[in-house]
Each structure stands twice: as C-alpha cells, then as structure tokens.
Amino acid sequence: MIADMDIVSEMRKSFNSAPRMVNHVKRLAEGHCLLGIIMLFLAATADYLSSRNNTIRLSGLEECCSFYFLLTGIIGLAGCTTSRRGLVAAFLLMCLHSIFIFVPGIIISSSFDIHFYQHECWGECDWHLLNIPNSSRCQILCGEGLSDNQKSQMTRLGTDMRVDAVMISLAILELLFSVLTVAVTARLMILSDSRLRDKVRSEMQPLNEVDREKMNDSRDSQ
After folding, report:
1. Distance (Å, whole) CA 105 – CA 167
2. Who is most buried in 68, 72, 79, 153, counting CB within 10 A?
3. What tens digit of pLDDT does each residue of 28-53 get?
4. Are strands 155-157 and 55-56 parallel, antiparallel or unpaired?
C-alpha cells in the first residue's frame, strides 16, 4: 500500500516537473469549457427559434454535443489541478471523441439545417413515431413552387442559418482545440512517463549495487 502511494506521488511530481506544459493543457481545458458554454447557449437558442417558427430540426443533438465539450474541459481542469494521470488520460480520450464523433455531428446537423432553410424545404410523414406501418412514407419538397395547400399539410425544415453558421464556426474551432489538446496532452504524458522511469532507475541503481556486493561477498566466502 505504501509503495503504491509512493508511485502515485512520484507520478504527480513528474506532472508538476513540467509546469509550462501543464499550464498549456489547463488553458486548453478552459477553452473547451468556454466553447461548450457558448455552443450550449446557441443550440438552445436555435431550438427556441425553431419552436417559435414551427420548424423541425434535430433538437437536442447539438445540446448533447455542446455539453460533452463542456464536460471535456471540466475533466481537463480537474486533471491539471489534481495532477491525476487518469483524469488527464480521460481528457485526451474525450478530445478524440470530440474530433471523430461530436464535432462532425454538429457540422452535419447544422449543414442540413442551413440547406433546408435556404432552399425553403418542407416535409411530412404519414406515420407516427410509435406506430410505423409497413406502407409508410415521408417526403421532402423544396423550392418556391409549393402551393399554400401543400404547405398547410407539411412542416418547414431548418432554422435561421445565422445561428447554424456560428455553430459550425465554433465546432471547427473546437476541432482545432481538440487536435491541439491531444498533441500537447500526449506529449505531457510521454514526458512524465520518461521522467518517472528515470527516477525509478536512479533509485534502483544503489540497490542493484548493494545486491552485487552481497553476491560477490558470498562468492568470496565460498
């Protein structure tokens, strides 16, 4: 138990031995938190505008992604503050999730909203989500050629493109932050591992010399 505590303390010292890099990671984590809060507010605003204008969009998707960015920053700040290797590794892993899953999700959904809004698209389905018949169908019609009768039976798709354009810009910024965070955090962990190994080797070297002396004395006595 004591040996495990010594290893944990040495790991924390190895993190603290690179204060400039830890400070960089902390600043990046703060950036993730700030972007997450702004994007969460914009996503809620887009959903409010959609409900007020009676349009359909993927409500809740962008809020989930934005909350994940905020949570990523909080995990990064906790890892830098406590110097816990597990939290720093979780921060790195969550940034990879942001790069490959959550940022593309926001960009794709916002791009669809902009496309539908620009082309004045309307849609309808003849089924309910809880009861989908075998002969169900959905249709999306775009353009100015729709009659008022058709529009009355369909629902407008998309949201105000200005909000979605800002969301895409912030998502690209989050992507850059995540890529930079992965590079810096991985370098910090590799550096801390190498310094920890050097520390262990330097402490083990006197013990190895003592063992060699004992072996030599035993041989001489024989």
Report:
1. 11
2. 72
3. 999 999 999 999 999 999 999 888 88
4. parallel
